[in-house]
Amino acid sequence: MIDLTAGGHRIKLHLLSTGAVAVKTRFRQTRLHNFLSVPDFILDPHFTAWLPIWVLVIQHPEGIFLIDTGERADVTGTNYFRTCGILANWFDTSQFKFSVSRNQEIDRQLEAIRLQPEEIRAVILTHLHFDHTDGLRHFPSTPILVAKKEWEHPFGALPKLYPPWFRPTLLDLDQSIGPFNNTAWLTSSKDIALVHTPGHTHGHCSVLIMTEPYHVLFAADICYTQDQLLKNQFAANAASYRLARQTYAAVKAYARHQPLIFLPSHDPESADRLERLQPLR
Description:
- The radius of gyration is 18 Å and the shape is globular.
- It is built from nine helices and 14 strands.
- 23% of the residues lie in helices and 30% in strands.
- The longest helix is centred in the C-terminal third of the chain and has 17 residues, at 241-257.
- It is an alpha/beta fold.
- It starts with a strand and ends in a 5-residue tail after the last helix.
């Protein structure tokens, strides 16, 4: 847990890992920036080490916000993806590995920091990939917020895995913050914003927390590691590499004018950077 301040009030941030995932090495970092990146990583026999599946809890004077919901233990079962069709079942069981226990699911993680799912004011989803949405089942009565573009133009989502009750509130991103042209404020104090950061999906978003003196960007799947951002390296199977480059440029432009702590969802070093308050350089 990290204690920060914004406008004289305290904001507490908890970065929690809901298990781990391993991906093909050429999926994490592609050699090709086009459609050929897909067969290239499929043919790659090598997997990465285990990577975290981070979610972020924000304790704010206006309420407790949860950014993404992480994974569930059932994802390790052999039949988990069967309802999604033959191709999706083959792809998601052969190209990824998961290590998730029941105690690592988000409801148990909240209990470990003395919170209950019912206390969450809103769940904000950065995008609709299953490793970010599979924990939704623990929040049937909580408002769920999703960028309208992500909902209307999903890329790689598996709706068969959504809870049957899932009907999110859709947000229009009609504000701007510095180099980010499409954003929406999540708090009336205007210190937490949903920021459009496309590339991984067309509607992919990140969450910006504006504290003093550091701002924090929960970057979701902009990239796998901060090092990729700094070296202009990309993960495979992006919805748009052109948009991914624009997002990289916007993040770096923001960080040049404001100390920014950058937290991708699967970066093993994200928690350490947050604890040390180490900004992007």
